[in-house]
Every structure is written in C-alpha cells, then in structure tokens.
C-alpha cells in the first residue's frame, strides 16, 4: 500500500539475536518483493506417517494426532500408517507380493482415529497402545521401507511407564527445559488425554492447536518424544518442541530494543527531509572480523527483475496447463504467491477475460488452463486495481507438475539458457579468430629477444 501511495516505508524485523531495518522508497531503493523470500518448509505426508527421520517430523505428526483426537479432522492429516505410500527415497520400488496379499486379506477396515478413540471412551492406555504399538507393528509389515533404515520399535504403555523416573504433570512443567524421560512422557500423555477430553466435551466446537495452551502443548511434546524414541530419534525438551511446533524463534528483548531504536533513527531522517542519508541496518549474533555486532549499509537499488517495482513487471510461471485450474491460478499463484487482492486477468493472445474480480468468470474456475487455450508461451495481463498493480504472467508449460502445483521464476530460464549458448558460441568464435593473430606476436617477441641478446654481446 505504501508503494502504491508513493510513501516511504520502514520495514523491520527480528529473529532471536538477528535484527534488521530497511527503508523502502519507491523508485530509489529495492522494495519488499525485490528479494525472494524463503518458502515455508513442508514435509511429505508419507515421511510424517511412515518414515520420520528428524524430530520435526515427529512434532508435525503429534500436531496431526492432536487434531485427529480433539481438533478439526483433516483427512490429509491422518496419523495412521499409509500402506499405499511409496518410499520417498525409492519412489519406484514396489511393495513385496506378501505385503500386497496381507493388505488385501488381512487389512482391517479403515476407521478414523477420533471414531476409534470414542469407541474405547478415550482410554489413555488403549489410545497409547493404538498409536505407538498397533500402528507401529502395522508399519513394520511394510518391509520395503526398512531395507536401508532401522525398523521402529513398538512401545506399550506398561513398558513406557518403566522407562525412567515418571514425573507428575505439574513437576514436568517445572522442567520444561529438560528432556523428559519416556515414563514422564507417558504420564503427561495420559493426563492430557483426560483433561483435553473434558475440555472437548465442554466446548461446542473442536479444539484448536495453541502453542501457549499448556495442556495442548504438553500433549504434543509427549507424543513427539514417544514417537521419536520409537524411531530412534534423539528426544528434545518441551521448550525446543514448542519452538518447532509453533514455528517460532524465542524473542530477545535487547534485539527488539535495538531494532526499535534503528526504526526511530531512520524515521527522523525522513521527517527532516534527509532521505538521502537513509541506511539499512543489521544486528549480528557474533562480532564480524572488525569486532562489530551492529552494521549499516546504503540502501540497495531496485531489482531489475522484480515484478513489483521494475519497468517490465514480468513473472514466469511453470505449470502443467492440462492439470492446473483457473481457480488454482487465481488462489495459489495470484493471491497466495503474488499477494494480489482482487485480480483481473486477460489473455494477451486472445484478449479473452480469464479471471474477473466481479465474479463474471466464476463458471470457468473449475476449468483447466488448456481448456481456455492457455498453453506454453501464453502471456496473461494481470491487474489488481486494489493495489494499483500490473503484472505480466508468462506461462511455461512443463509436464512433471501435477494438479495446481506450480513453480515461479523472476527470470526466463529458456531465455537465460539461449543467452548462455550464444555467449559460449561467441567465445568459441572469438577464440578461433584470435588464435592465428597470436603467431605474428610470438614471432615479434622472438625477434625482440634476438635483438636484446645481440645488444648484450656488443656491450
């Protein structure tokens, strides 16, 4: 909004010991979108459900388990073993014939985790044994997953209670920075099941994950450590698991205070009309070679490939036109990726309206891009009047993407490849032309050497 209104913006943030302040001025400095932002890390469902290798996988699984038992049930967040999933490290490997026969003959009829828990009245020990014994034993039958991995070890509730000193729920909370024993995790698990069930019965709506809810966070931490133990993954403390589950980095007051001071300093420059003196400022966790933890630099110029502040406003999107829908283009690419609010899209080749912010084209939303003759090389003119934003979307067709999946680039990879090939051809041509011309130079060099030698003899 500041860019559209041509008003300076002081962008800032902190992450633990790291902090930064950046002044953004239209046409003078790079804007917020000039640098690509890191994507949020996601994990394949088969890794979460079948083959966790890091504690974060167990933490994500535990959040899913909480939702399956007490929260909003999402079919994509199932926590039971996925018998149809491929090995992510060997995607083309087929299950053995024994596994296929066992799946057809002996596999029980699928039942939801919530429904199963209700059938046993949320008995903590039975729920524990279902998640950490029965499901793990079922998972071990997928022998093709364990050819290059250590098999998980099923764990009964009775056995877990003997693994270390079992602290009470309250005592465990006082040791949030310490790694709980498995016995403590089992105790906390049982307490949380009981208390969260009471809360669920009192509430008219399903419970939601909240990293600051003591009972919810304790349940997730206990589950994550128990599953980590089963898969021979190092356990972590409640404090560390909370940071992972909430995707947070603990704030440091001194860093925030420094950043606030830097913001005020840059604001005063703008108020006093000294925009030319604006700086980008940073704080470091450790001193640099000059012994400084506080650094500043001149604002960076606009990125010529930025789709917001460059003159071209170009974005290259790689999609499968036979798979991606118009709705996927609108919601995922334009709104989610490019942060548009009310996009209007016109096909630059046919001048047909593809997407209208007024809803006139809603009937086309389920259609594939190919059905609207949008294929490789198509150029879509995208306008967002709410932000005074215009973007040219260049379509590049690829076959390996499925559904509404897409990849975005600020530069044309094909154009980049062509330029590289032309440059290589030019260098080869120049090399061929230069080679013969070096012969006279070498001849002259030898003559000069002879003349110098003759002069030395005369002397």
From TrEMBL:
Q: The Ubiquitin-activating enzyme SCCH domain covers which part of the protein? A: 193-240
Q: Show the InterPro entries listed in the entry.
A: ThiF/MoeB/HesA, ThiF_NAD_FAD-bd, UAE_UbL_dom, Ub_act_enz_dom_a_sf, Uba2, UBA_E1_SCCH, Ubiquitin-activating_enz, UBQ-activ_enz_E1_Cys_AS
Q: Name one GO biological process term.
A: protein sumoylation
Q: Which Gene Ontology terms of cellular component type are present? A: cytoplasm; SUMO activating enzyme complex
Positions annotated to bind Zn(2+)? 31, 34, 306, 309
List each copy of the Ubiquitin/SUMO-activating enzyme ubiquitin-like domain by range.
318-397
Q: Recite the UniProt keywords alphabetically.
A: ATP-binding, Metal-binding, Nucleotide-binding, Ubl conjugation pathway, Zinc
Extract the GO molecular function terms from the UniProt entry: ATP binding; metal ion binding; SUMO activating enzyme activity
Please list where the region (Disordered) is annotated.
77-110, 409-459
What spans are recorded as compositionally biased (Basic and acidic residues)? 81-103, 409-432, 440-450
- The answer to keyword Transit peptide applying to this record is no
Spell out the catalytic residues. Answer: 46
Q: In which pathway does it act?
A: Protein modification
Keyword Transferase annotated: no
Could you tell me which residue ranges the THIF-type NAD/FAD binding fold domain spans?
1-306
The record, for Pfam families, names: ThiF, UAE_UbL, UBA_E1_SCCH
Family recorded in the similarity comment: Belongs to the ubiquitin-activating E1 family.
- Protein name stated in the entry: SUMO-activating enzyme subunit
């Amino acid at each position: 909004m500041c860019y559209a209104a041509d008003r300076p913006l002081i962008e800032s943030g902190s992450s633990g010991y790291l902090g930064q302040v950046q002044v953004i001025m239209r046409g003078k400095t790079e804007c917020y979108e000039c640098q690509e932002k890191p994507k949020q890390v996601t994990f394949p469902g088969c890794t979460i459900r079948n083959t966790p290798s890091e504690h974060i996988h167990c933490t994500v699984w535990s959040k899913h388990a909480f939702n399956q038992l007490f929260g909003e049930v999402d079919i994509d967040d199932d926590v039971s073993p996925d018998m149809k999933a491929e090995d992510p490290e060997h995607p083309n490997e087929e299950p053995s014939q024994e596994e296929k026969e066992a799946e057809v003959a002996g596999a029980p009829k699928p039942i939801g985790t919530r429904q199963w828990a209700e059938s046993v009245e949320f008995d903590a020990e039975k729920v524990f044994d279902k998640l950490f014994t029965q499901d793990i034993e079922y998972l071990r039958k997928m022998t093709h997953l364990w050819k290059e991995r250590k098999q998980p070890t099923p764990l009964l509730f009775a056995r877990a209670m003997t693994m270390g000193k079992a602290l009470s729920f309250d005592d465990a909370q006082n040791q949030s920075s310490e790694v709980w024993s498995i016995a403590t995790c089992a105790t906390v698990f049982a307490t949380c099941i009981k208390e969260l069930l009471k809360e669920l019965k009192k509430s008219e709506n399903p419970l939601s994950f909240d990293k600051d809810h003591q009972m919810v966070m304790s349940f997730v931490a206990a589950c994550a450590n128990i599953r980590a133990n089963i898969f021979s993954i190092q356990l972590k403390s409640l404090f560390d698991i909370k940071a992972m589950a909430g995707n947070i980095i603990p704030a440091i007051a001194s860093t925030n205070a420094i950043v606030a001071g830097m913001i005020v300093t840059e604001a005063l420059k703008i108020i006093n009309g000294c925009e030319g003196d604006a700086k980008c400022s940073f704080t470091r966790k450790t001193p640099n070679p000059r012994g400084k933890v506080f650094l500043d630099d001149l604002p960076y110029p606009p990125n010529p490939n930025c789709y917001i502040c460059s003159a071209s406003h170009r974005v290259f999107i790689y999609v499968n036109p036979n798979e991606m829908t118009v709705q996927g283009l609108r919601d995922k690419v334009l709104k989610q990726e490019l942060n548009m609010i009310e996009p209007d899209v016109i096909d630059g080749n046919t001048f047909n309206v593809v997407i209208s912010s007024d809803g006139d084209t809603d009937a086309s939303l389920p259609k594939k891009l190919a059905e609207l003759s949008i294929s490789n090389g198509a150029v879509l003119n995208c306008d967002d009047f709410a932000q005074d934003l215009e973007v040219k979307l260049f379509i590049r067709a690829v076959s390996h993407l499925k559904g509404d999946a897409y990849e975005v680039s600020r530069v044309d990879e094909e154009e980049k490849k062509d330029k590289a090939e032309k440059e290589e051809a030019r260098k080869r041509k120049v090399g061929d032309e230069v080679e013969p011309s070096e012969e006279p130079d070498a001849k002259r060099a030898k003559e000069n050497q002879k003349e110098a030698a003759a002069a030395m003899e005369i002397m």
